[in-house]
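In this supplementary section we document a worked example of the pipeline. Step one takes a protein sequence of length 347 as its only input; no multiple sequence alignment statistics are reported here. Step two produces a three-dimensional model, which step three serialises into structure tokens for compact storage. The input and output of this example are shown verbatim.
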Amino acid sequence: MEIKEFDYCLPKELIASEPVLPRDHSKLMVLERKSGKIVHKRFYEIVDFLTDNDILVFNDTKVINSRLYGRKKETKGKAEVFLVRQEDRDFFDYDWWPENWVIIGKPNLKEGWVIQFDEELEGEIIKVLNYERVIKFNLSGDQLKEKILSLGLPPLPPYIKQPSKLSYKNYQTIFAKKAGSVAAPTASLHFTEELILKIKEKGVEMLYLTLHIGLGTFLSLKTETIKNHKLHPEFFEINEETAKKINEAKRNKKRVIAVGTTVVRALEYCSHNNLVASRKGMTELFIYPGYKFQIVDALITNFHLPKSSLLMLVCAFASKDLIFKAYREAIEKKYRFFSFGDAMFIE
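The serialised model returned by step three reads:
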């Protein structure tokens, strides 16, 4: 199976550059896998498709203000730095703020360049690693943390060309708790406090796990053949309470609904004999057609980029033919795509 099989033509005007407000007023496509039936709703109407036999599982990761803007100290030319992780870590460890960080940036940052971010913070490019760089800051520890969090901005996707204050403000879920992501779990952006209350009133249980979304979310697949591609490893944690309740739900034939592809990957990575284990660590699970799901029974997700690993995951869940049929209908009906776009509920 080749990556080009997952390409499609999307009109540029359907790429969402701003969030819908209120969050739960985005469009919602409900896709029934067994029948192929498609229903068009608003997201707040998802409550009508849920029962007390359902469990919703969310990703409670929190996006870090990891994009910094500065100027080259020598020429005063503009420079952009996007913190990916500490040099000695496989993921963004929010509790550790050393001098050396792996970054990507613009323009093509050269070894020896010094970037000035404000009067107190600067960093030198000390190593070139393919498309990544290593920057050494002149601060570390709490001093660096405070600077990054005050100067940095949320790392909105690159297709959002002119982000507004509204975009930055809304690029975080209402239940974001554990800092460590460089991108938001966008399926969860549709939920509001009012909608959560209505869902709880129906007797739906809500559970949380953590998966810190890494750089791989912005990277295109480089190989022609799917099985030759590897995802960037991402840190996850499923606590004992969440695992226990999910397993009880599976034994009692309840429906486990994953809110977002990150939740799918964490649950399925920890699955065995149709149960989930309480674990934490790194996952690079790549789900594409042919994968046999053990835990997830339904999925809430956005509409994904052509040829992306996320599109392949939803095609594995609902079949490529059905997903591409749904995407064609979404384009016809002017759905909004990608991070700030509309949602799909795959039953």
